[in-house]
Recover the amino acids of this structure.
């Protein structure tokens, strides 16, 4: 007998850098969210609608900023967004990863245990994803950990997978499906709720994160100044905001070489995503210590596109 259609909302949450955004992209089979090795990459909730024909399933996944103990106004805004999202979901997908090396004592400790304490209070089913299992040589290590996880909290399911290799991601979809509502809820065309300008700014920020180190990435924001489409190309002009004077030179590089590289990578990403030629102009501006100022965080992270 064919299975009835189902749909619903699944929040992808977890501490920074565990692979939430990589998982969203793996689920959607395309790069929608930026993902880098730097913790704190995601700065806003991002919807990506997953559609499957058989059995008919629609899952509105929402990737969220990493949950952590915030140190500044930026961190507080990110944590607030992520929490608001998981309170709305039909299912919570809590992503974690194993610690480095054979020592697994810290599994689900620290920031994970803070998150679990929050989730225990809610009635929403929680599925635990143990990501990055491609890094685990001895897979038999996982079984005792899954037992331990069940003692920390009654998870609806535990799914070990590799988002990066797209390994066992389908098992997560099957586990989520159990908790969805009957019927289809989304327009077949909907993939996301963000405009192209959002993705333009994210791809620029990703290129800056990839090319900078230490404290520079944490103080980077991108403002889209102009976004115009004509019949031949999309023209984008943007300002890269850094939080210190000394960071400006780092982003620009010797003779502008670094900024050129950043621009070229971001432009290629946009051409791929938009499927058309892009002309990109970039500037760099300093807004001293903006991450500590709630009003500036609002202007640079939450409202730069008026899309929230
Ligand atoms: N080896 C391995 N690396 C992974 C996997 N999934 C993600 N990564 C890497 O982990 C890093 C962080 O990935 P993200 O997807 O940006 O992590 P995130 O949880 O979204 O991070 P924040 O947005 O900062 O909270 C990147 O370098 C990814 O390539 C995986 O399955 N295996
Ligand atoms: Mg992310």
């Amino acid at each position: 007998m064919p299975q009835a259609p189902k749909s619903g909302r699944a929040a992808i949450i977890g501490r920074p850098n565990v692979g939430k955004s990589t998982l969203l992209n793996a689920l959607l089979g395309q790069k929608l969210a930026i993902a880098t090795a730097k913790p704190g990459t995601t700065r806003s909730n991002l919807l990506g609608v997953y559609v499957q024909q058989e059995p008919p399933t629609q899952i509105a996944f929402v990737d969220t900023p990493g949950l952590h103990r915030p140190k500044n106004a930026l961190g507080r805004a990110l944590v607030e967004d992520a929490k608001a999202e998981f309170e709305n979901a039909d299912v919570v997908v809590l992503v974690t990863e194993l610690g480095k090396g054979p020592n697994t004592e810290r599994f689900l400790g620290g920031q994970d245990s803070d998150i679990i304490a929050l989730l225990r209070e809610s009635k929403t089913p929680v599925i635990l994803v143990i990501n990055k299992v491609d890094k685990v040589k001895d897979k038999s290590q996982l079984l005792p950990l899954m037992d331990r996880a069940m003692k920390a909290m009654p998870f609806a399911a535990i799914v070990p997978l590799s988002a990066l290799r797209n390994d066992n991601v389908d098992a997560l979809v099957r586990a989520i499906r159990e908790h969805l509502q009957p019927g289809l809820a989304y327009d077949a065309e909907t993939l996301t709720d963000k405009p192209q300008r959002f993705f333009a700014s994210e791809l620029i920020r990703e290129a800056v994160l990839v090319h900078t180190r230490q404290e520079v990435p944490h103080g980077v924001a991108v403002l889209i100044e102009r976004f115009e489409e004509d019949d031949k190309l999309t023209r984008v002009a943007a300002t890269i905001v850094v939080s210190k004077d000394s960071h400006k030179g780092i982003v620009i590089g010797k003779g502008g070489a670094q900024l050129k590289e950043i621009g070229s990578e971001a432009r290629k990403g946009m051409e791929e995503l938009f499927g058309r030629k892009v002309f990109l102009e970039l500037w760099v501006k300093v807004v001293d210590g903006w991450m500590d100022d709630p009003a500036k965080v609002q202007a640079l992270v939450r409202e730069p596109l008026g899309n929230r």
